[in-house]
Amino acid sequence: MSKNKEMNQFVRDSILSGYRHHSFSVERELSDFYLKGHGDSSLENILHLDTYAEILASDRIRALKNTLICLITVISRSSIRNGADSEISFSMSDFFINEVEKQKSEEDLQILLKEILKRFRELVDETQHQKNPYPVAKAIQYINAHLYGSCTVEGTAGFTGCNPKYLAALFRRELGLSPREYIRREKMKKALTLLVHDRLSVNETADILGYCNASHFIKEFKRFYGKTPRKYIS
């Protein structure tokens, strides 16, 4: 039987069995209600692991794991909708999906469910009380996305919502260097990749990385690596 026929048969059997899923709107409303701090800590009793335990896999533990992964998807996106940084929320989602795979029993998965709900609620709560809960992380996110082209301290600070001087202080405290130094370091690491692995010319590399001209790029490269690009890769 083809996969398409298998899928259609599965859908028909599921509908005819009388089995019903939570509607998307119900899952969304419940998760939003909980994340905004209105619900109590028993959301897992509403969106609990037994909901899809008989349908998401033939093995019960595997089905429970799949159920929890689906719930993580719902709750992480609800967190973003309620103001959480998308990269942080998605990274937490990735972490917890990996944690799901480590669990061995239903009890372990139920404990993990409570931990997941707690951490995402804390993320949303922190976001609602602070404009930027992770300014350095947000700054790094911005810098990584703008290495190809112009990337300024002012633009980075604007993305985080922080004053440039305040952001610089946070960078020095957490990374031991200023935002400007961090941008230079990351651009130089990218430059080496472009020159050595992608075999681009100095002019091409300078242009891609947003330098006004090749001369300025060469000067920055020599300051960072101690040699000009040509001597470094020869």
UniProtKB/TrEMBL annotation:
Residues annotated as domain HTH araC/xylS-type: 137-234
Keyword Nucleotide-binding: no
GO molecular function: DNA-binding transcription factor activity; sequence-specific DNA binding
Keyword annotations of the record: DNA-binding, Transcription, Transcription regulation
InterPro entries named in the record: Homeodomain-like_sf, HTH_AraC, HTH_AraC-typ_CS
Protein's UniProt keywords contain Repressor: no
Top-rank taxon, per record: Bacteria
SMART domains the record matches: HTH_ARAC
PANTHER family in the cross-refs: ARAC-FAMILY TRANSCRIPTIONAL REGULATOR, HTH-TYPE TRANSCRIPTIONAL REGULATOR EXSA
Protein name (Swiss-Prot/TrEMBL): Xylose operon regulatory protein
